[in-house]
Amino acid sequence: MSVVDVREAITRAHHEEWARVVAALTRRFGDLDIAEEAAAEAFATAVERWPADGVPPNPGAWLTTTANRKAIDRIRRESKRDGKQKEAQMVYDDDPPEPLGAIDDERLRLIFTCCHPALAMETRMALTLRMVGGLTVPEIARAFLVQETAMGQRITRAKAKIKAARIPYRVPSAEDLPARVSGVLAVLFLVFNEGYLATGPDTDPVRHDLTAEAIRLTRLIRALMPKDGEVAGLLALMLLTEARRTARVSASGELVTLDEQDRGAWDAALVAEGHRLVRERLASRVPPGRYQILAAINAVHTSVRDVRDTDWSQVVALYNQLARLDPSPIVALNRAIAVAELDGPEVALAAVDRLEDKLAGYHAYHATRADLLRRLGRSQESHAAYDKAIELAGNTAETAYLTRRRDQLG
């Protein structure tokens, strides 16, 4: 096996096994710091040994075993230094049997631990992306539009708080689930978004491992809470977005926007499932939440075979409804994009420019301005906006697309 093959195997193992390894160690040792450090050491050991020894037949089992040994070594060192004999003893004893939750899935347990309401929402998201998604601190910082140092400190404080407060590692009881699930959905949505449009310049532009994991865990939560509208809405949103994955990046590695995608390449089964979930929620006549409205917007986009047949008035109406629930600048930006198709780019640009103070560091804001200015014939201003968007964008496919659009201005 070549060095390149081994490197690809390690990358694949990290994508597929990181959360499993961290979850297994968290279950056994009850400490996120130990779990994360031991998992990281196991992968570092793989980088050293696999090129010489070869990739093991079961990479996940090898990594888990190695990580367990690393964790035991750390606890032994700490027990000798601090006299924690009781803590050290646990590594030799079999885990006592524990009643299974409604869903027996280690990663789901890990998510509920990371999403505990004792933590701030932003912290829950960041911690889950690190511990479950395996994203690096720089990737998470870009997702939150904050400095890397601040994000690292946030994650460190979160792990310390979980340990100090003895937050349990388990799926909540049935009566606690409704109050806890909204935070989990927010995290899963962010994990999905990182896979849908990866922010790291050194990662694949679309990370199917993250989108697939987000969908898998959302399906598990839907099985647990089949009557929850927002769970169904988030699943529908993910499915309708994932259905377009193979059409979103060209053979040359460039982002393909919705209006230019080959709709025949979309996954028809995922589109049908997403539409079915949206119809079920509409039939319930229960006022929709944020994810249900976003799913409905995606259903409008995926219900026509030609972009020219898109019902933009319906899209704008749905964004108006969403803005009442979530009056965020991101929602306002996306609404303006739809307004451009309905009322023209000049009206949309006026709405976008009002968002400058809140979105000046967000690449999509500048990309949207660049496109609207291009449509208005203001090439010099458009060029400058494209430059700013390229500077801020982390996704390689998106950067390639923005660069081409800018260069077409002449």
Largest sheet: none
CATH architecture of the domain at 322-410: Alpha Horseshoe
Question: Helix and strand succession?
Answer: HHHHHHHHHHHHHHHHHHHH
Cα(first) to Cα(last) distance is: 47 Å
How would you describe this structure to a colleague?
- It comes from Kribbella orskensis.
- This is RNA polymerase sigma-70 factor (ECF subfamily).
- The chain is built from 20 helices and no strands.
- It is mainly α and 410 residues long.
- Among the domains are: 87 residues, Rna Polymerase Sigma Factor, Chain: A, CATH 1.10.1740; 89 residues, Serine Threonine Protein Phosphatase 5, Tetratricopeptide repeat, CATH 1.25.40.10.
- Helix 6 crosses helix 8 and helix 15 packs antiparallel against helix 16.
- The protein is globular and about 70 Å long.
Gist of the model:
Helix content is 70%, strand content 0%. The chain contains 20 helices and no strands. Residues 180-280 form the DUF6596 domain.
Characteristics:
globular, Serine Threonine Protein Phosphatase 5, Tetratricopeptide repeat, mainly alpha, RNA_pol_sigma_r2, 410 residues, sigma factor, RNA_pol_sigma_r3/r4-like, Rna Polymerase Sigma Factor, Chain: A, 70% helix, transcription regulation, 20 helices, RNA_pol_sigma70_r4_t2
What is the topological layout?
Elements lengths: L2 H27 L2 H22 L5 H24 L2 H5 L16 H9 L6 H11 L5 H8 L3 H17 L12 H20 L11 H17 L4 H14 L25 H17 L5 H13 L9 H14 L3 H15 L1 H9 L2 H4 L3 H13 L3 H14 L3 H12 L3
Helix pairs in contact: 1-2, 1-3, 1-5, 2-3, 6-7, 6-8, 6-9, 7-8, 9-10, 9-11, 10-11, 11-12, 11-13, 12-13, 13-14, 14-15, 15-16, 16-18, 18-19, 19-20
